[in-house]
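Input sequence (493 aa), recorded before submission:
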Amino acid sequence: MKFSQARTNSMESNPLLLQIAPDDQEQGWELADRHSNAIARYQAYLNWLSAKTFLPWVEEWALEEDLPIPLIWPSEATLLSILELVNGTAIQLGETRLVLIPSDEREPESLIVPQEWVDNPNWIGDYYLAVSVSLEGDEEDCWIQVWGFATHRQVKNQGNYHVSNRSYSVPIAELTHDLTVMEITLGLQVREVVKPLPQLSETEIKQCLEQLGDASLYSPRLQLLMPFEKWAALLTDERLRQQLCDRRIGKLETVSVKTTPVKLREWLENVLELGKNALEDGWQQFEALIPPPEPSAVRGKSDVMGVASEAMPEAIAPVIRLLEPHQIEQTRRHAAGVLGELGVGNPEAINALTQLLHTARDEETRWQAALSLGKISPGHPQAGIRKARYLDFGMQLEGHSVALIVALMPRSDDKLGVFLQVQPIEGKKLPPHLKLSVLSESGEMKREVETRSDEGGEGKDNLIQLRFNPRSGTRFQVRVSVNEVSVTEEFVA
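Predicted structure, token format:
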């Protein structure tokens, strides 16, 4: 690849910058507007701009090296059905496939590749390129920035797989930043072998189309109860993928509620059957999605959290003493959290937490006692449970991955304690102006909280939360929104 000197130097020392044509921006919005919801529209817009801006650069490369003419894969006409469902756009250059993975994050920490581009043998690429799309300037001052690339073998073997959003991530620092290196490896085997996909029966096809064609499912690829192999097989068949897309297009203007509400009391009743790491329509145990913080000691008992597993019974007694009423409430709450880690199946710990539920002066302490009781004695009539779900906002959150957490606590009256939180998955601050809302069944706003921003316009909140006690059988909606995009879940108390 004989690049001009200026172009070669810029790629070796800095990420590649390419200006987005104003005409492409206008055409991109027109095409993106055909998608089923705001998330898909914005995702398709970024992909369109990335492909239309990067393709001329590849065409120049191909012309200089007498390579085949690069084309969008499988074709521009099929982009609608792909981008409705998966982030990423492929460019075919002879036998080589480049997969562009765009985001609107200005300085991304990782290249995040959807599993469909890695584990589907019909879709895998040779090179995956991390692309930032900058739309903050005037119409004539918008850019894409290519940070570098990873090979399929690198993504598959060295990338971190995330089950919650079915993706592989590779740190930006581990990418090859000099794009001229693609010349050296062009034509070499850089793909890892992946398993073939199953053949779907007519019954399976019908079930998949009916289930995933519902436009109220804002992200059908994240319906984790469906095995990835079955989902990928459906996606690979162009006819079936188009049918799925046709079912979704035009049925939803904003991300909306699911037709079947989540029955919260069943979470409490089925905790033993579901198991600790079971997934239920995208919901999973809180600890499986949100990494726990580094353990810290209870005041006055610095060895408790670091105790060896065989010494845990001896460690429980001093922690239980920290639950006594004369202790300050913060100490009681912290000790309750420690018992949730140490006291699995221990009758003294179970009894102590049960007593704390009745004697705690603070609501936060009662919640911690209920959740710890749920950990060490699943199925206990007073135990709480906490589940989390990854929220797919496409690229609206500038690299923030967030989860909706729902915690439940049984009550003696005809009510259910519901505790809602939105937290970042990877420890960052939440973005500013993100809202957590509770609405009635009819959509009437009941309560709402919004994240704040600091003087620099960045988010300053680690989480936002709401707590309320609906009566048994009450239907309500929980909405998480940012800018013009929202994700809504419907529940029955």
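Checked by second reader. The chain has a mean pLDDT of 84.
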